[in-house]
Amino acid sequence: MSGVLESSGLTVRYAGNVALSGVDIVVPSGTMIGLVGANGAGKSTLVNALAGWSRGRTTITGAVRLGGHDITGLAPHQRVAQGLTLVPEGKNIFTELTVDENLALVRPPADRTGRHTFTVAEVFEFFPRLAERRSHKGAALSGGERQMLAVGRALLAGPRVLMLDEPSAGLAPRLIADLLSRIRLLVDRGLPVLLVEQNVKAALKVVDHLYLLERGRIVGEGAADVMAADHRIVEAYLGTIAEGARS
Ligand SMILES: Nc1ncnc2c1ncn2[C@@H]1O[C@H](COP(=O)(O)OP(=O)(O)OP(=O)(O)O)[C@@H](O)[C@H]1O
Ligand SMILES: [Mg+2]
Description:
- Mean pLDDT is 92; it is low at 242-247.
- The radius of gyration is 17 Å and the shape is globular.
- The chain has one domain (5-89, 157-244): 3-Layer(aba) Sandwich (Rossmann fold).
- It is α/β, with parallel strands linked by helices.
- A 6-stranded mixed beta sheet has the order 6-7-8-3-9-10, sandwiched between helices.
- It has helices at residues 43-51, 76-81, 99-104, 120-126, 128-132, 143-156, 173-188, 200-206, 224-227, 231-238, and strands at residues 5-14, 17-27, 32-36, 58-66, 69-70, 84-87, 161-165, 193-196, 209-214, 217-223.
- 33% of the residues lie in helices and 26% in strands.
- The chain binds adenosine-5'-triphosphate (ATP) and magnesium ion.
- Magnesium ion binds next to helix 1.
């Protein structure tokens, strides 16, 4: 299977300790792919390695392809320029600037080939709450509003594929479902998304395909409905509420 974004044999070592081992993932066009796993499993390490950056001294081996081209040797800013967009863990906004100012700072891509472009008006359509708060500073936004603003900024950059590292962190369950269903609308419009999500039940409701990461290795993957019945997912993440996972 070929995808917009693919990794093969991706391995990351932090000062000799292996954090990610031989990871092959595929993000096909027009799909939403979920990545789940326990704390410390290597989820952030994986999306960061795809984006070309790391938080410490790392050795990265393996290959990454974007739109069929090998981008393994590219620096993070070059990958961004190619449309590989990551909204990292934590908030990626300017807290001293208003919502409008945060959005106005994003430069659309010069070459729009293969890119999914969005206007500020469309960002406000996807996230009406942001439009209501457009003159408020980032610092005054709630956790969910900050996540929406971070995603909005990523959209204005004209992504080819969007990677989100726990966009729902810290949100109440009701708000998680709302945020993820809005992100699903972006996918339905054609934008491929790789979503790292702690809330496996909520992820299974929106993704097409799910990867399970344990101690730096992909130990399971499959269509969302198949994975919702996978015993490892049920036992570790869904418990007795498994029957309701897709309802
Ligand atoms: N800069 C670093 N230096 C050394 N080890 C690191 C560094 N960053 C992460 N690690 C280790 O790599 C492993 C994977 O960490 P990572 O942050 O990718 O996990 P995660 O799945 O994103 O976890 P979480 O759900 O808590 O965000 C962990 O054992 C972590 O301690
Ligand atoms: Mg993480």
